[in-house]
């Protein structure tokens, strides 16, 4: 478990990359948001500066999240009532994979998309760092590119819980995983399709994406990013999140053992 699940960039976080010189017509940005008025508009504008079309999934917000996202230029898919981050992401994936859901999404969303980029609507992730993930995807053609965070920037409690979860999940799949819960990531169309079958409705859905990659032998790439922690509240219920995380972790462990997976060359995990 000394090597990461797949290839990783340097652990040193460089300065944010500049905007892409060319447009990226095959990548859609999906932003799950719950009561993020006052923040989500800035996120959408930052993504627009990177020339990415944006779909905001308003997950049962009771404030002005949807209106602010639209005003900033995003297409908005509204869910009611609140369903959880995993369900919001799956709704965004379905809309992206279908091109548009005619009954609930502006058909101008377009597509088809080769990849879906996601980041949180609370401003924790800097859209100026999007080019790093896109560049890693272009170079490696990984099915999943994860922006792993600098844990020194985290509040102490989050730093501890993330350290424990990294150790447990890395044990479960047999390879070191630098960050299993970062919401700043890019995944291929085939991974998005596979992830739709996940039963997870909350934050553990993103952990399951990595488990799917491990079980199917999909390549994962890691890119260092910074995380911005302000005074925003967390929607994560500590106990329920821990239980769902354990469920995903032990399901991944059972799957890996049942399939007798072994580590292959190039960072993939595959069958002997």
Describe the structure.
- The chain has eight helices and nine strands.
- It has about 270 residues and is of the alpha/beta class.
- The protein has one domain: Spore Coat Polysaccharide Biosynthesis Protein SpsA, Chain A (Alpha-Beta Complex).
- It has a seven-stranded mixed sheet with strand order 3-2-1-4-6-5-7, sandwiched between helices. The chain has a two-stranded antiparallel sheet with strand order 8-9.
- Helix 1 links the parallel strand 1 and strand 2.
- About 45% of the residues are buried.
The percentage helix is 25-40%
The main β sheet shows up as: 7 strands, mixed
At CATH's second level, what is the architecture?
Alpha-Beta Complex
State Rg.
Answer: 17 Å
């Amino acid at each position: 478990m000394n090597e990461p699940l797949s290839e990783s960039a340097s652990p040193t976080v460089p300065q944010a990359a500049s905007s892409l010189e060319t447009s990226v017509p095959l990548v859609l940005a999906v932003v799950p948001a719950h009561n993020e008025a006052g923040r989500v508009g800035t996120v959408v504008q930052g993504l627009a500066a990177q020339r990415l079309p944006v779909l905001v999934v308003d997950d049962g917000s009771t404030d002005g999240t949807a209106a602010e996202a639209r005003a900033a230029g995003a297409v908005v898919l509204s869910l009611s009532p609140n369903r959880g981050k995993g369900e919001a992401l799956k709704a965004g994936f379905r809309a992206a994979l279908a091109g548009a859901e005619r009954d609930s999404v502006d058909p101008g969303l377009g597509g088809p998309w080769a990849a879906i980029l996601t980041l949180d609507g609370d401003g924790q992730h800097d859209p100026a760092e999007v080019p790093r993930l896109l560049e890693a995807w272009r170079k490696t053609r990984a099915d999943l590119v994860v922006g792993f965070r600098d844990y020194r920037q985290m509040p102490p409690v989050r730093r501890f819980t993330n350290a424990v979860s990294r150790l447990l999940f890395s044990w479960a799949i047999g390879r070191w995983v630098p960050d299993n819960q970062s919401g700043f990531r890019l995944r291929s169309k085939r991974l998005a399709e596979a992830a739709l079958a996940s039963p997870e409705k909350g934050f553990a859905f993103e952990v399951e994406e990595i488990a799917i990659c491990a079980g199917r032998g999909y390549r994962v790439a890691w890119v260092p990013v910074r995380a911005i922690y302000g005074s925003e509240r967390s929607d994560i219920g500590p106990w329920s999140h821990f239980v769902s995380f354990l469920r995903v972790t032990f399901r991944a462990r059972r799957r890996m053992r049942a399939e007798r997976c072994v580590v292959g060359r190039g960072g993939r995990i595959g069958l002997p």
